[in-house]
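Hello,

Our lab assistant flagged a job as stuck in the queue for most of the afternoon. It eventually completed. Since we weren't sure the result was trustworthy after the delay, we are filing this so someone can double-check. Below is the sequence as submitted and the structure that was eventually returned. Let us know if re-running is recommended.
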Amino acid sequence: MKINVGIFFGGKSVEHEISIISALQAVSNLNQEKYNPIPIYITKQNELYTGECMLDIAEYKDIPNLLIKSHKITIFNDAGEVLLRRIDNKKLFKQKKVVIDVAFPIVHGLNVEDGSLQGFLRMLDIPFVGSDVLSSSVAMNKYVSKLQLKAHDIPVLDCFWLIANDYFANGQKKLAEIQEKFNFPLIVKPIDLGSSVGISKAKNEIELQKALDLAFRFSHQVIIEPAIVNLKEINCAVLGDDKAIIVSECEEPVTAGEMLDYEAKYMSAQTKKCASSTSQGMASLKRRIPADIPSEMKEKIQKLAQEAFKILDCHGVVRIDFIIDTGTNEVYLNELNSIPGSLAFYLFEPIGMKYETLLDELIKMALRRKRIREEILYSFETNVLSMQKTFGAK
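-- returned structure --
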């Protein structure tokens, strides 16, 4: 019997569309003799829909019409089974009852990748692919992850943490504090977004003000870092759990400008068919694989990636982005992506792992974690309230 895999994608995120691409790309590479993929689309209003038409990316050109052709659903746990049910109680996929055996979140960004969806799945008590609630949240928060990594001697750039209320109440004071701590140029980042959304570079105070205004449009907290002038970006992915860890090949993204921004990542993608899509998401980005770095540097980055994966208690596949200051040859861990675009499959192919195999391993890890969690005691059978004849009485 096939395993029903609920593919969760979309969500209230600025990376909503990228999630759609990544999810449908994964479905097209899933071994469908072993797994039955069930698309579960999360709208930007956090409503849930399913339907076979949702497996065709061309349908997303007109989302209102797509939703009309789909089924609005709810998800609930019924005596240990996680079920999908149409809001109107009609049958789904010609079946009265549709059970989800394992959830596969392929979501990017705030409100979904940051532990929110993972917490929902944990409440349903369903095995799910990827990092758990806390590690997902920490990986998304650029400031908190820096603190955690720095405490374990992982090299990260120093930063200035700034809250919107403080900045808009004491703007000039905060600008002065930033410039006292760092020299220009600077990089300003929303604290909890991915895909380079809201990130910009500032070469002077005027540009810094503009960069802060932009970043605060996407988050109520930002970080400011010194910009590395002679910069080389290197990415590496890690696949693993408590049992074993595999480190991917290293890549070097090729940028047309000073930064690898959202447009460079997605809007200038090379056209190549993937499922019924005309975009490969992160897989279509121009890059050098393997990265053009010495073997000693490659080994150092792979070791740091593996250590960071363990420190944050990550699970599944995580892409870890590094920057090299080519002037000093120093390496810094830049950020972790707990659900990377395209699930970083293109970084594992060079070491002999096909995308289908990667997906299979991720699902196996999710089911294994569920079995391990079942061995842990979470509650007592004793009902304390049953011992009280008049609980709360004087």
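-- support follow-up --
The delay was a queue issue, not a problem with the job. The result is valid. The chain has three domains: 3-128, 160-226, 229-369. The CA atoms of residues 254 and 287 lie 5 Å apart.
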